[in-house]
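Researcher: We're teaching a course module on how sequence relates to structure. For the next exercise, students receive a sequence and then see the predicted structure as tokens, so they can try to spot secondary structure elements on their own. Here is the exercise chain.
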Amino acid sequence: MTYPRNLLIRPGAAGVFHCVSRCVRRAFLCGVDRASGRSFEHRRQWIEDRALALCELFAVSLHAYAVMSNHFHVVVELVPGEALAWTESDVAQRWVRLFPIRGGNVELDALRIQALLANPERLAVLRRRLCDLGWFMRCLNEPIARRANREDQCKGRFWEGRYKAQALLDDRAVLAAMAYVDLNPIRAGITDRLDRSSHTSIQVRLRRLAASSNAATQVLPPIAGVRSTLHALSEGHYIELVDWTGRELRPGKRGAIPKAAPSALHRLGIRPDRWPLQVKATGSGYWRAIGSVQSLLDQAAALGQQWMRGIGVARRLVA
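Model: And here is the predicted structure for the students to work with:
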């Protein structure tokens, strides 16, 4: 049974979400289609570029992403307070940049901005949309679908009807979802090294770490978007944690990282024997939300339910 998004994601409220969009056709989103032999590898960059561009326009923080062969993951934080601080001119300019006129026309863009500034009610609607998860995902998915359809010379759906969204109810859930997303290529056996995990946020973090002398001790920043720090973890410690988690999830098997060392878990109060289970459960143990037992019970009550998938997993993780 599906629920309206506004029951799961309260309009205008801050929050962090793990979202997945999956291709509906047999043809691959990216990579090489085994049926036809065609390569769609270049489409990975389309999605990566689009997600990073949207972070400049929306009041969001992008904490993790991974572009796979027929789906992609993002961990997105909504920061409505940022949108409330924008001027009316900021809102109008962002919206015009988000939906530009084909071919580009500076004069028409200026007229569109003036028209929006003369309509405060419309600007209020747009301000809300620029910190809305549904609009973020729509503006990410629709251009990719149109571009792919043009390339494939076909019409119709490119994505499944609804993207999957999980509310991440506490910091531990956010950290586990980030690690789960960053480890997608490792689990899939595409690579056995994080620095070779192309089109993922962990590769961006590794490059940032190599380029900056203070990145190792810097409090974990987002990949793009509004400046936000959810954890007291440094970027270097996060990378170390993801590396160790990859080996623990699949020790000695194809798709596991060959070297690793535990760190940070004790500082965060997380049991090392429970952490890999928490990360793995992000993909299969939960459904609409991820968090502690009490946070899941609260979320269930908000939906008018007495139970929610994942409560049993949450209890086992603290046992």
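Model: If you want an answer key for the exercise: The chain has a mean pLDDT of 84. Residues 99 and 139 are 9 Å apart (CA to CA).
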